[in-house]
Amino acid sequence: MPTGEDARPARLMAKPSWLISEVSRVAYPLLSDRLATAGSRGYHYRLLAALAEFGPASQASLGRHAAMDRSDVAAAVSDLVGRGLAARAPDPADRRRNVISITPAGTAHLRRLDELVAGVQDELLTPLSAAERQQLTSLLSRIVQHHG
Amino acid sequence: MPTGEDARPARLMAKPSWLISEVSRVAYPLLSDRLATAGSRGYHYRLLAALAEFGPASQASLGRHAAMDRSDVAAAVSDLVGRGLAARAPDPADRRRNVISITPAGTAHLRRLDELVAGVQDELLTPLSAAERQQLTSLLSRIVQHHG
DNA sequence: CAGATCTCAGCTATACTGAAATGC
DNA sequence: CGCATTTCAGTATAGCTGAGATCT
Q1: Are A16 and B121 contacting, i.e. CB atoms less than 8 angstroms apart?
Q2: Does pLDDT of B1 surpass 90?
Q3: What is the pLDDT of residues A82-126, one digit of tens each?
Q4: Is the CB of B68 under 7 A from strand D?
Q5: How many domains is chain A partitioned into structurally?
Q6: Residue A62 structural domain
Q7: Does residue B147 belong to the interface with chain A, where contact is any CB pair within 8 Å?
Q8: Within a domain: B52
């Protein structure tokens, strides 16, 4: 094995879509492992965040806020309810719906997850200055908004 | 449903790791669908790129260059060989290894995939100027290099 | 012996699809 | 009727793990 095998094809290194997927691949286990220390996954954090910021909502509405599929919302909400972090109740005004709400324990849990997630940002963006992190966030936000 | 349900929790929108995964989620079907028009997937492009730029290599070496798992390399190489885009031959110097090489048809196919992938970059980065695209690429590259 | 390579079976999480039952 | 909601079963992919056989 003569030369460095960690080298990547130049074709890939020059493609933003490749870099994005590589950073995403780096970020995923960082986030996933941290959340796991609190017995949670990304879906749980996203749902709790949506519940905390937008208030009680149906599962369908929740899925739109948290950018999750209806199918995955159902399963993840059941997890949260099972752990006492959220409550599921029938909607008296529309009996097709469940109204999901965050519990006090859920709010406390979200705060804990917030700290874990903040730590991941620092770890992921270590090589960037504060100004560069802001720049990156801004550029990515515009891409996300455009494809919204 | 009073207010916009496309709104995302502020907690998420402020997290680079979330934005990265969102952009990655947008980019994936763009890339995947385009490559599918040529009967290929991301793994195929990455392998062909590594073969074209680093020359014939063992599957293990190929996996390191293309950032792929040994297991996935085996399956994807079999795909390429089956389509005549790569060749698999035993290494006379080390009989544990297969030497994988790109064929002329593989080189031609790679050129075609290159055009498709280039189109995806434009589509993904539509809202950004040329300078901003360069900036984004640079920031992402530094993150990737740091976590290499 | 340790260590590398290849193959295969299987696993997890994300993301998604289809269908059915229920209700507006 | 059309449409929305929930639930369940199932699919696909990327990425990864473990085990075993082979070879250096």
Answers
A1: yes
A2: no
A3: 999 999 999 999 999 999 999 999 999 999 999 999 999 999 999
A4: yes
A5: 1
A6: 40-112
A7: yes
A8: yes
Contact B143 A120 (CB under 8 A): no
Tell me whether residue B125 is in a domain. no
Global confidence as pTM: 0.92
Q: What is the pLDDT of residues A64-80, one digit of tens each?
A: 999 999 999 999 999 99
pLDDT given for residue A3 in this prediction = 53
| Any domain includes A68 | yes
Residue in A16, A46, A120 closest to B125 by CB? A16
Compute how many other C-beta atoms are within 10 angstroms of the C-beta atom of residue A115: 10
Q: Does B148 touch chain A (CB under 8 A)?
A: yes
- Note whether residue A30 is domain-resident: no
Nearest to A124 among B16, B117, B141 (CB): B16
Residue B79 three-state SS: helix
CATH number at residue A72: 1.10.10.10
In the predicted structure, residue B70 carries a pLDDT above the cut 60 = yes
Q: Do B128 and A147 touch (CB under 8 A)?
A: no
- Are the CB atoms for B120 and A134 separated by under 8 Å? no
Q: Which two tokens stand for residue A18?
A: 């490749």
Are residues A127 and B121, on separate chains, in Cβ contact within 8 Å? no
**Which is nearest to B77 in space by CA: B91, B95, B56?**
B56
Residue of chain A with shortest Cα separation from B23:
A144
Say whether B65 and A8 touch across the interface (CB within 8 A).
yes
CA distance B21 to A126: 18
Q: What is the pLDDT of residues B44-68, one digit of tens each?
A: 999 999 999 999 999 999 999 999 9
Collapsed DSSP state (helix, strand, coil) of residue A121: helix
